[in-house]
């Protein structure tokens, strides 16, 4: 667009926010489980039906403090994140009633307890504002950079003593995989838009197609600095799926999507294209396709910077030209078969001398990979350029912008009434810059197809009584229709010209709407009430079932008009399952296999859709009986406490243990949990059989023997063995992960400590991983033997264990020797830590 230096404004990167659906890294982002997944040290967090944007509940945050760390906190699992991936953070938010007209929120990410990384600010609806009368959104992005041991917490907080509501919270990767769009493998020529003489047509039938569109931002500040600006300098959102529906309902049939080179690449890594850049364009393609809209991909900011602000470097720099050429080739290669894209707009308002000569170079590069798409070429803004002329390619859309006269259309203060006529407006077009070169007086037409990629007036022209901005808009569109000129209104959301007067806005979420403009657009665009989208079964597969296990699934549908009625159109469901008219498939399958069938749905208006479905029913898994894996027991000593845990594999927990024959040594007992414990009172060898029974009644037996040694004579002397250190290398451990323990034993006595040892009974559900060379492990205990230690000598060692179940892990280590010990109070230490 044209800009006056007196009020030139920076242009932001627009990134749409997707609803919190699949891929959400927050458990229960909709707060429907009845369990609060968020915590706080300074705020009161409650699940509250009043706080719900959707569903049965949302989260209410009430605090006497402000600032992100004092609000609601959610701990992210770093195992679910990937370094270098861009993540979107967001939630629906609303201020509680009766606590004020507005407040500011903070959305941040706390890494290892440090100062929060700010995620909101200019990236949020109302610049992070929250209001009592409507739901808005808080939103931000973060390029993942972390180590597996880092702690990451999302934080949302508000103003002190101003409770607010949160719902539909999400953290999602912005990747092409998450968006799920796949470029078509073949070109659908029946929906392709192309130039035919001086008009646009669609398909082989050459159905006339006139684009009546609106501009939408999807780009950043446009700066070309090294290093690139940080992500929190970007305005990373703009429109969503609902915006595209509103654009359709306002009568538009196309969107000029305004891009920047650094959506795809940075100047520090030219030609390395970002996954999130493709993901954003993919998402807009999906939204456009869902609403029957076409897209013009507009390179609003080419490598080097924004052209419209008298930027002169691009035309003389071969490196910048090469980057633009490579980028357009990459875009064309990816989307060459996507007919939702109507055209490629090479550069917005190029400030380049001999522009059409270079434009032909760009066209040739694109045509090498895409011979079908329209290419939009705008008039040059360079004062020395020779102007527009017909290019060699016949599939070109010639483009000018229309803010005429700029001193009135682009001014907030010159609000003299528009008194022009339709005939005068048409004449201005005939004589317009770029247009006049192709005007044919004899036919009162232009000899090439034209697009007016931007047109409009400042919002005051619509809002101030008597200025007649709506009349100007009516004359503009009637004149465009007369000459068959496609066009895109400037702008959907922009502070000066927008339907919504803000960079960041969604339908029904913004207070600054150019009401008269919005009301006039359906009639100006000749929009008819949009028909409901066609009925479409969105379920393409069902979750797998299992023989003998209760099954339930709900098939889904979009479009059409409720209520819907479901039926089986072909094939058969797995035996034991039934399809209800409400689309619920329930029952208990009785036969294993893969089943193919076709479902049909009919809506209120009797429109239908069918969908082929495949479902697999697995056989009941083979249930193995338990298998006792303990085949031997350590020897015991008369008068010394004994403890050993029996082990079993297979089967179905929980297990029950018992003695099936024979007897344990006198003084020892076997618990139902499989622990042999007690203090034997007589020496000898005992043989007995143990039995384990699992929860399904299956069992196994094992014959064992145990030797009971006579107690050694009482130790003499004084070694005073001390366990001076025994601690864990971390404060908690995940089940299935290893954790280290450090111990130091020392002879504090006067005599030689003979056969000095560190002894640690092995806890249940815990296995040995590794440790010092002096250590020998068994299923019962770990013994680390250090020989004889003289007075004052010590040993400092590590061992590593792995807990198998969540809960609490408690272990006790003991320092001992064969020399007497007059001070037993320092022999042992115990460590307890949580297992997650």
TrEMBL record:
Keywords on record: Carbohydrate metabolism, Cellulose degradation, Glycosidase, Hydrolase, Polysaccharide degradation, Signal
Region (Disordered): 814-836
GO terms under biological process: cellulose catabolic process
Sequence ranges assigned to domain CBM-cenC in this UniProt record: 23-154
UniProt superkingdom: Bacteria
Family: Belongs to the glycosyl hydrolase 5 (cellulase A) family.
Protein name: Cellulase family glycosylhydrolase
């Amino acid at each position: 667009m044209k800009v006056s230096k007196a009020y030139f404004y920076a242009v932001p990167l627009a990134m749409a926010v997707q609803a919190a659906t699949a891929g959400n890294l927050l458990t229960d982002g909709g707060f429907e489980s009845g369990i609060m997944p968020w915590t706080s040290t300074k705020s009161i967090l409650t699940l509250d039906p009043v706080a719900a944007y959707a569903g049965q509940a949302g989260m209410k945050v009430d605090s006497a403090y402000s600032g992100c760390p004092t609000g609601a906190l959610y701990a992210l699992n770093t195992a679910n994140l990937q370094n270098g991936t861009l993540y979107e953070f967001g939630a629906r938010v609303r201020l509680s009633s009766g606590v004020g007209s507005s407040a500011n929120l903070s959305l941040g990410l706390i890494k290892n307890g440090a100062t929060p990384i700010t995620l909101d600010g200019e990236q949020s609806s109302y610049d992070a504002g929250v209001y009592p009368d409507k739901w808005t959104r808080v939103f931000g992005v973060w390029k993942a950079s972390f180590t597996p041991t880092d702690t990451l917490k999302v934080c949302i907080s508000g103003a002190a003593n101003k409770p607010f509501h949160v719902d539909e919270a999400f953290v999602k990767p912005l990747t092409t995989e998450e968006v799920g769009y796949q470029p078509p493998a073949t070109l659908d020529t029946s929906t392709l838009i192309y130039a035919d003489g001086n008009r646009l047509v669609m398909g082989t039938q050459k159905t006339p197609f006139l684009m009546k569109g609106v501009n939408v931002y999807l780009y950043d500040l446009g700066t070309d600095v090294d290093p690139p600006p940080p992500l929190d300098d970007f305005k990373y959102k703009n429109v969503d799926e609902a915006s595209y529906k509103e654009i359709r309902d306002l009568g538009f049939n196309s969107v000029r999507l305004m891009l920047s080179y650094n959506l795809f690449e940075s100047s520090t890594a030219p030609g390395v294209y970002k996954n999130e850049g493709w993901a954003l364009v993919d998402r807009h393609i999906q939204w456009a396709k869902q609403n029957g809209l076409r897209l013009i991909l507009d390179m609003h900011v080419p490598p080097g910077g924004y052209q419209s602000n008298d930027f002169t470097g691009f035309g003389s720099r071969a490196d910048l030209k090469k980057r633009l050429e490579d980028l357009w080739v990459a875009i064309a290669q990816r989307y060459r078969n996507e007919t939702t894209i109507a055209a490629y707009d090479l550069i917005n308002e190029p400030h380049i001398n001999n522009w059409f000569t270079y434009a032909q170079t760009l066209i040739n590069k694109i045509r090498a990979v895409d011979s079908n798409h329209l290419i939009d070429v705008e008039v040059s803004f360079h004062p020395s350029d020779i102007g527009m002329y017909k290019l060699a390619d016949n599939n070109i859309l010639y483009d000018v912008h229309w803010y005429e006269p700029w001193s009135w259309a682009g001014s907030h203060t010159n609000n003299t009434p528009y008194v022009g006529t339709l005939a005068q407006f048409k004449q201005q077009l005939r004589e317009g810059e770029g247009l006049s070169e192709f005007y044919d007086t004899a036919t009162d037409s232009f000899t090439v197809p034209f697009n007016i990629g931007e047109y409009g007036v400042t919002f005051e022209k619509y809002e101030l009584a008597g200025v007649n901005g709506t009349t100007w808009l009516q004359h503009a569109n009637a004149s465009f229709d007369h000459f068959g000129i496609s066009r895109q209104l400037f702008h959907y959301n922009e502070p000066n010209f927008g339907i919504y007067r803000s960079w960041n806005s969604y339908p029904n979420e913004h207070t600054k709407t150019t009401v008269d403009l919005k009301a006039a657009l359906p009639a100006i665009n000749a929009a008819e009430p949009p028909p409901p989208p066609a009925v479409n079964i969105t379920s393409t597969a069902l979750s797998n079932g299992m023989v003998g296990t209760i099954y339930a699934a709900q098939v889904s549908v979009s479009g059409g008009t409720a209520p819907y009625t479901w039926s089986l159109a072909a094939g058969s469901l797995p035996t034991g399952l039934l399809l209800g008219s409400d689309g619920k498939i329930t029952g208990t399958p009785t036969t294993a296999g893969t089943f193919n069938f076709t479902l049909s749905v009919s809506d209120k208006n009797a429109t239908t859709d069918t969908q082929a479905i495949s479902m697999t029913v697995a056989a009941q898994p083979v249930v193995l009986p338990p298998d006792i894996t303990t085949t031997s027991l350590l020897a015991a000593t008369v008068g010394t406490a004994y403890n050993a845990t029996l082990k079993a594999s297979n089967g179905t927990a929980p297990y029950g243990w018992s003695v099936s024959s024979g007897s344990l040594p006198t003084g020892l007992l076997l618990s139902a949990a499989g622990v042999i414990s007690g203090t034997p009172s007589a020496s000898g060898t005992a043989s007995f059989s143990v039995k384990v029974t699992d929860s399904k009644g299956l069992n196994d037996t094992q014959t064992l023997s145990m030797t009971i040694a006579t107690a050694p004579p009482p130790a003499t002397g004084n070694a005073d063995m001390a366990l001076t250190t025994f601690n864990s290398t971390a404060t908690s451990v995940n089940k299935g992960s290893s954790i280290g323990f450090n111990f130091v034993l020392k002879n504090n006595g006067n005599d030689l400590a003979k056969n000095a040892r560190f002894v640690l009974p092995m806890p249940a559900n815990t296995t040995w991983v590794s440790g010092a060379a002096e250590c020998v492990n068994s299923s019962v205990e770990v013994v680390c033997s250090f020989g004889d230690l003289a007075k004052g000598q010590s040993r400092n060692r590590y061992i590593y264990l792995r807990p198998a179940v969540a809960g609490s892990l408690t272990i006790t280590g003991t320092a001992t020797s064969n020399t007497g010990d007059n001070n037993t109070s320092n022999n042992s230490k115990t460590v307890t830590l949580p297992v997650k």
